[in-house]
Every structure is written in structure tokens, then in C-alpha cells.
Amino acid sequence: MIAGLAMAVDSQNVVGYQSVQATGGAYKMLGVTFSAVGETGTTLGSFIDQSTLSVSDIIMIPDASGAYLTYTYIDAETAEEEEIEGGAGWYDDDTVNANDVVLAVGSSVWFLPDATETIKVLGEVKTSWEKTVAGGKYTMMSFPFPKDYTLVSFTFEGTPGDVIMIPDASGVYASYSFIDAETSEEEELDGEGWYDEGGQKANAMSLTAGQGFWIYPESQATFSATLTL
Questions:
Q1: Which helix or strand (DSSP H or E) is residue 96 part of?
Q2: 49 Cα distance to chain centroid
Q3: Phi, psi (rounded to 5 degrees) for 73
Q4: What is the pLDDT along the chain (229 residues), one digit of tens a residue?
Q5: What gap in Å lies between CA 85 and CA 148, rounded to an integer?
Q6: Are 15 and 37 within 8 A, CB to CB?
Q7: Which of 94, 122, 157, 218 is the most exposed place for a label (fewest CB within 10 A)?
Q8: Are 18 and 7 in contact (CB under 8 A)?
């Protein structure tokens, strides 16, 4: 069951939205769990229902080098007052409209709300997904569907020593390492899966829909998942 999701289903697709609580002045790692309707990904302009945003909300997206690109939300009234072409939407540091910036399903962004608010992430839910992640670097990811998940909700082809890091509400990270079946047997652990820093298996740990995380694979790794309604 998709938790917290209002949706409509037909023979072609599943569309709807998910309400997400965000605390003013606190960074939230927000997963991209919807595509734009009929598309494989979404855009900044389509990602969040703009009627649920506040002026000066910020989204930060890492580029290929690891540097962040920062975008600020401006509503129609502010755009008119400041004579900004493009109307309501997301703008870069040079006040260029960035509504068309593409976001991949299964990625995540940093969202910094100006005030505490409940936003609506919306679009179409894909029923299958696959993502290949480069080795030797950190990548921001999320579960690609708007439903609660565990670390084994994915099909994962990885390497012993791959690491997932998940921030809590205060920004403190919990770290989990991947152990394969062979290594688990050698070290007398509890089978293949993800283990916390205390050596406890964390496969069954529940994560909230839309919770983003960092993945650091030792070498190239592939994630895939299929949605069950």
C-alpha cells in the first residue's frame, strides 16, 4: 500500500501526490518519487505543487562534481513586484528561471523551507525503475516510489563495503554497510544484507516514503525496483 498518497489509477498510469512535512530553517533530504505525467523524470517546476511553497524556499541539487546548484522559489506576486520575467517558479543565483531543470526519479535533493509547511510532491508513479550508480563517489538517492520502504526494497547488485548513509531529522547520519553472503558466512554474521555500525542487520528497518540517502559503492552498482500497489 502506498502510504500518504492520494492517487488516481487507470490502465495507463498512477497519478497523485504525497504530502510531506518540512520544518522551517531545517534541511530535508527529499526523494524524487514521481515523474511528470507521461515522462521518465520530472522538473523543478513540476516536482512540488507550487501553491504549497513559500517565497524563499530553497532546493539544492548536487552536480556531477559534487558542487551544489541552488534554486530559490519566487511566487507570482514577488516576481511581478521585482519585475522578474518568467513569473512564479524556481530561480538560480542569477535570477534565471529554472523550472525546466530535470530531476531523475530515484534521486534526491536538499529542500530548505523558509517556514514550516506541508508541501505536496506530485506527478505520475512509475511501476518499474533501475538506476546504475558510479563507484568511488557519494550519490544522493531515494526509493523511487512514494511508499515506506526498507533497505532491501531494492534489488541491489553491489560489493561488500558499499555504504548507505541516512540523515535523521537533526542532520545526524546513520551508516549501513553492505555484506554479501560469502563475507557473512566468513564473519559468522546473519546473512547477506545491510549492517549498522554495531554489526546489527538492518534489512528490516523501515524508512519513510520520500526519505533520501547517500550511497557510496566501492565500484559501479545497480539498483532496481518494481512497484506493488
A1: none
A2: 16
A3: -85, 135
A4: 344 455 444 445 688 899 999 999 999 999 999 999 888 899 999 999 999 999 999 999 998 888 999 999 999 999 999 999 899 999 999 999 999 999 999 999 999 999 999 999 999 998 899 999 999 999 999 999 999 999 999 888 778 889 999 998 888 999 999 999 999 999 999 999 999 999 999 999 999 999 999 999 999 999 999 987 6
A5: 39
A6: yes
A7: 94
A8: no
The answer to whether 144 and 104 are in contact (CB under 8 A) is no
pTM of the model: 0.90
**Contact at 8 Å (CB) between 103 and 142?**
no
Phi-psi category of residue 148: left, alpha or beta, with phi > 0 → left and psi -120 to 50 → alpha: beta
Helix/strand/coil for 92: coil
Strands 68-74 and 117-125: unpaired
What cell was used for 52?
A: 504549497
Please report, for residues 6, 90, 119, 175, the alpha-carbon distance to residue 57 in angstroms, rounded to integers and kept in the order given: 24, 9, 11, 29
Q: What angle do CA 72, 76, 77 make, to 5 degrees?
A: 105
> How many residues are given for the chain?
229
